Amino acid sequence: MTTTNFFSKIEEHLERKLPLVAYRKPKETIVNCITQNDDQLHLVRDFTESGFVFAPFSSKGEVVLIPSGDFFHLPDFDLDQVVFKGESTSTVPQMPSVKENYLQSVRKAIKEIDNDRFHKVVLSRSIEIEIGTSPIEWFKRLLKTYTNAFCYLWYHPQVGLWLGATPEILLSTINDRFTTMSLAGTQTFKGDLNPKWGHKEIDEQKLVTKFILEALKEKVGYLEEGNLETIKAGNLMHLRTKITGKLKDNLKEVLKALHPTPAVGGLPKEPAVRFIQEQENYNREFYTGYLGELNLRTSRQRSARTNNQENQAYRCITKKNNLFVNLRCMQLKDSKALIYVGGGITKNSVPEREWEETVAKSKTILSIL
């Protein structure tokens, strides 16, 4: 399939108001698309289903499924086809009241942390801007700009249209082996791939890692914690620790234990989420939820070098899950885009710096508009 045919097929599906998701996994060149030929809303019940899932931030919300059926892909998207200026041409309204409200929420969070209500909480905000370009064009720009992120365009007429480029894996599995990560701590990339990190970012990362290890220790086997490392995601740097193991419980229970992680909610989970609901004056919906491939099966031919004809005909069937936290994303509503950004608040937080962090994160999406 040519590039033109691939994106024309997506555009035709959007014009018919039918569900679809187009996406590319980190460091890959293949762009995949799963389409649905009616507007029925499919929901995940027990996570034995197969397809592409889209889950909200609220653990009580319904998880939407685009079933694996009509699947096609573009083997190698030519990034040179996308030409645009790297700086945003959209005007972001400068509203002092928005900044002050966010700073007040951060101050309240620090006070609650000092009072031992919780150890960390993630506070977010939304940015609303006028738009005009086709969402397919934005998707192409995400693909070009964020090659190390999970880039997607997701649509369902009963839910809405979302795009994003997220660096964070929630859970990746191959058969019964899994990988997850704790990703916390943020600073702007300034040319150094190994920058210095402050106590706030290091402590925040430790909290997230500890939570994941505790949440999974009774549900998985062979749990291993990797080394702390610094990664680059667009114009930002993060601290990351990979965690691996072997599934011994069902996938639904593992996801329930993980989501929402302290990287998007807080710690302890319940009081932090309650504080978020008290302080944020909007519904996150699918921002800081998760999305990705659920129980997709792939087959691989055994090596033809064997002399055994029966072995040559044997195919190895692999079941995979690739689920990502929905960060660095936007929702399209009519002629407007809602961009979502947030940051982790701990006892060492400085309110003004927390505001600046959300500004830096917003540039991931603003740079492609």
Automatic annotation (TrEMBL):
Name this protein carries in UniProt: Chorismate-binding protein
One Pfam family this sequence matches: Chorismate_bind
InterPro entries: ADC_synthase, Chorismate_C
Every Chorismate-utilising enzyme C-terminal domain range: 99-296, 319-361
Organism name: Euzebyella saccharophila
Source species, domain of life: Bacteria
Cited PANTHER family: ISOCHORISMATE SYNTHASE ENTC
